[in-house]
Amino acid sequence: MEFAAVVIIFINILLAVNLAVGTTPIMVWWERRVSGFMQGRSGPNRAHIGGIRLGGLVQSVADMIKLAFKEDFIPAFIKHKMFFIMAPVIMFICSFLTVGVIPFADRLVIDGVTYTMQALPIDLGILWFLAFAGLSVYGIVLGGYASTSKFGILSSIRAIAQVISYEASMGLAIISMLIVYGSVNLSDIAEYQGGLLFGFIPAWGIIMQPLAALIFIVAAFAETNRAPFDLAEGESELVAGYHTEYSAMRFGLFQVSEFAAMSAASALIVTMFFGGYQVPWLNTQALQENINIVLFAMMIILPATIYFFTQWIKKNNTWVDENDPRAKESKILIKIFKGIAIAVVVILALLLLFGLGTNGTNIATAMIQVSTFLLKFFLINFFFVWIRWTLLRFRYDQLQLLGWKVLLPLALLNIVITATYVLVLGA
Amino acid sequence: METKIVSKRFHIPESYKLEVAKKHGVYGSLEKLFTMTPDEVITAVEKSNLRGKGGGGASCGQKWRYMPLNDPRPAYLIVNADESEPGTFKDREVMDKDPHLLIEGIICSSYAMNIHTAYIYIRGEYKWLADRLNTAIDEAYEAGIIGETLMNGACDFKLDIVVHRGAGAYICGEKSALIESLEGKRGHPRLKPHQKECEWYFGDPATVNNVETIASVPEIVEFGYEAYTKHGTPKSPGTMLFALSGPVKNPGVYELAFGHKMIDVINTLGGGMKDGKKLKAVIPGGVSCPILTADEVNKAVLDYESMWDIGSTLGTGGMVIIDEDACMVEVAKNIIEFYHHESCGQCTPCREGTGWIDTILHKVIHQQGKLSDIDNISDVCGTLNGKTICVFAPAVADIIGSIVVKFRDEFETYILNNQGAEHE
Amino acid sequence: MGIKTVKRHGDTLRDKLYIPAIVSGMKTTMRHFVTNIKDNSNLITKSYPEVQPTDITDRYRGVHRLTKREDDSISCVACYMCATACPADCMFIEATERTDGVDEKMPAVFNIDLLECVFCGYCVEACPCDAIRMDTGIFSFVADQRKDFILSKEALLANTRSKDFSDD
Amino acid sequence: MSNIVNIVIDGKEVEAEKGAVLIDYLFKQDIDIPHFCYHPALGTDGNCRMCMVEIEGSKRPQISCDTPVKEGMVVRTQGENIEQVRRDILELELINHPVDCPTCDQAGECKLQDYYMAGGFYESRLEAESKVKAKKAVDLGKNVMLDQERCVLCTRCTRFTDEITHTNELGIFSRADHSVISTFPGQELESDYSMNIVDLCPVGALTSKDFRFNQRVWFLESFEAICSGCSKGCSIHVDHKKEKYKDDQIFRFRPREDHDVNGYFICDDGRLSYKDENDNRLNDASINQETVSTKEALTNIADVLTANPNDTLLLVSPFLSNEELALIKEYTLNNGTTLSGYSPQYYDESFADDMLRTSDRSPNRAGMMALRINENEKDFNELLSQKKVIVVIENSYFEDKAELFKDKKVILFSSKDTKVKEFANTVLPVASFLEKDGSYTNSESVTQHIKSGIRKNAPVGTLTSLWKAIESLSKEKA
Question: In a designed cystine with D157, which of A29, D116, D197, D234 is the match (CB 3.0 to 4.6 A)?
Answer without folding.
Answer: D197
